[in-house]
Write a structure and sequence with these properties.
The protein is an alpha/beta fold and about 375 residues long. The chain has helices at about 1-30, 90-95, 110, 130-135, 145-160, 175, 190, 200-220, 240-245, 255-280, 290-300, 355-365, 375-384, and strands at about 40-45, 115-120, 180-185, 225-230, 285-290, 310-315, 315, 335, 345, 370. The longest helix is centred in the first third of the chain and has 29 residues, at about 1-30.
Length: about 375
C-alpha cells in the first residue's frame, strides 16, 4: 500500500510541476521575461529584413509575387510576405532574445501585439531618398520607400505609443531603455537601380553612406543605446548579378568580382562612419555585423554548412542559375527545389532560411560582429 501511495504522490507532484511549467510558458508568451536582455526590437532595412511591409505596395521590380507560394513554405508553411522560404536573420535574432517575431509596421493591427517591437524594413527600399531616382529617370517599378521613410514611420509609431512627446532625448527614454535597434543591410537596391546608367558607383556610395549615416544619427540623438548595423552581403554571388554581368568578371570564388568589390568598398566606408558615430555617441553601443565576410565564409566551404548548391536559386526557372528576371519565384512557370536547406540562394536575389540561419549564428554567437554581440548583451545586462 505504501508503494502505491508513494507512486501516486510522485505522479501527482510531477503533474502539478508540468502544469505549472506550462502555465509559466504561456505567461512568458504574453509578457516580457524580466531576465531577457531586451524587451523589444526595432528593425529597419530592405527585403532581406522585411517581415511583411511590402504586402500592400509594389515591392522590388521583378519580385511582386512574395505573397504567393512557395514563399514561406519551409517554416511558416504559407507565404508571410518574407522574401525567403522561411525565417530571416531578424527572425533568428528575435528567437535568440526570446521575443516574438516582429510584426510589420504596415500591418501591426493584423499581426498582433507591437509591445515587443516593430519591423519597419521594406522590400525595395533604398538608402538614398527616392527623389534622386525619380530625378534621374530611374524610378520605373521601384518601391518609393527609403530609409528616411522608415524613420518617419518609426516616429509615427513612437507617437502612437505615447513615447517621445517632447523634443529632448530623455523624452524617449522609455522607448529605448530595453530596446535593441537592428538595422539590416540597405544600399543593395541603390546600386542595382543604377545598373546601366551613367551614374558612377562612387556617387551612389557617397550619397547612400551620407543619408544612411544621417538616419543613424537621428536614431542615436533620439536615444537609441544598443544598435546593430549590418553591412552589405556578398552581392556578386547572387544569381541576379551572375546573369547580368559578363563571365570574364569573376573572382576567386566564382562570383562577380566588380559587384563584390562594390559591396566591399561600401562596407569599408560605412565602418569608417560608424567609428565616427561611436565617438559622437560614447554612451551607445554600435555593433557592425559583417555580412560580406559571413557570406564569403560560407561560399569558401559550403559543404561545411550543409550546402550543396552555391549559385543556383532554389525557386525559379531557366539556365544556368535557375533564374529568369521575367519569371521569378511565385510566378506560374517558376518551381521550387525539394530541398531548400541545401541551397544558399532562394529566388535569385534573396537567401534561403538555411543560409539566414547560418549568417545569424555568425552574428549572434560567432566573431563577425564588431564589437561582439556578446559584448553588447553584457553591457545591457550590467545596466539592467
Amino acid at each position: 500500500m505504501a508503494f502505491y501511495f508513494t507512486s501516486f504522490f510522485i505522479i501527482t507532484i510531477t503533474a502539478i510541476f508540468i502544469l505549472a511549467c506550462s502555465a509559466s510558458a504561456a505567461t512568458d508568451q504574453r509578457n516580457p521575461n524580466p531576465r531577457r536582455p531586451f524587451k523589444k526590437i526595432y528593425a529597419f532595412g530592405d527585403s532581406f529584413t522585411d517581415t511583411g511591409n511590402t504586402k500592400s505596395i509594389t515591392g522590388p521590380s521583378g519580385f511582386g509575387h512574395v505573397s504567393n507560394p512557395p514563399y514561406g513554405s519551409t517554416f511558416f508553411h504559407r507565404p508571410t510576405n518574407r522574401y525567403s522560404d522561411g525565417r530571416l536573420v531578424i527572425d533568428f535574432v528575435a528567437e535568440a532574445l526570446s521575443l516574438p517575431y516582429l510584426p510589420p509596421y504596415r500591418n501591426i493591427k493584423a499581426a498582433g501585439n507591437a509591445s515587443f517591437g516593430v519591423n519597419f524594413a521594406v522590400g525595395g527600399s533604398t538608402a538614398i531618398n527616392h527623389a534622386f531616382f525619380v530625378k534621374n529617370n530611374l524610378s520605373l517599378d521601384i518601391t518609393p520607400e527609403s530609409i528616411q521613410t522608415q524613420f518617419l514611420w518609426f516616429n509615427k509609431f513612437l507617437e502612437s505609443q505615447g513615447y517621445c512627446t517632447g523634443e529632448a532625448a530623455s523624452d524617449c527614454k522609455e522607448a529605448f531603455d530595453d530596446a535593441l535597434v537592428w538595422v539590416g543591410e540597405i544600399g543593395i537596391n541603390d546600386y542595382a537601380y543604377c545598373i546601366g546608367s551613367s551614374i558612377p558607383d562612387d556617387t551612389i556610395q557617397k550619397l547612400a553612406i551620407t543619408t544612411f549615416t544621417e538616419f543613424l544619427q537621428s536614431l542615436l540623438k533620439k536615444g537609441a543605446k544598443y544598435v546593430v548595423v549590418q553591412g552589405l552581403p556578398l552581392t556578386g554571388c547572387l544569381p541576379l548579378a551572375m546573369v547580368l554581368f559578363p563571365e570574364d568578371d569573376r573572382d576567386d570564388i566564382g562570383c562577380v568580382k566588380s559587384v563584390n568589390k562594390q559591396s566591399y568598398n561600401h562596407n569599408a566606408a560605412l565602418q569608417a562612419k560608424l567609428q565616427g558615430l561611436r565617438r559622437q555617441f560614447p554612451h551607445a553601443i554600435i555593433t557592425y555585423a559583417d555580412y560580406w565576410t559571413a557570406y564569403r565564409t560560407v561560399m569558401e566551404n559550403p559543404s561545411r554548412y550543409g550546402f550543396k548548391e552555391s549559385f543556383k536559386a532554389c525557386c525559379g526557372t531557366g539556365e544556368p542559375y535557375n533564374f529568369d528576371i521575367l519569371n521569378t519565384c511565385g510566378t506560374p512557370s517558376a518551381k521550387a527545389c525539394p530541398n531548400p536547406s541545401q541551397y544558399i540562394n532562394w529566388d535569385g536575389v534573396h537567401l534561403t532560411e538555411a543560409m539566414y540561419k547560418v549568417v545569424s549564428n555568425m552574428f549572434l554567437n560567432g566573431t563577425l560582429t564588431h564589437p561582439p554581440f556578446s559584448y553588447l548583451l553584457d553591457r545591457k545586462k550590467q545596466v539592467g
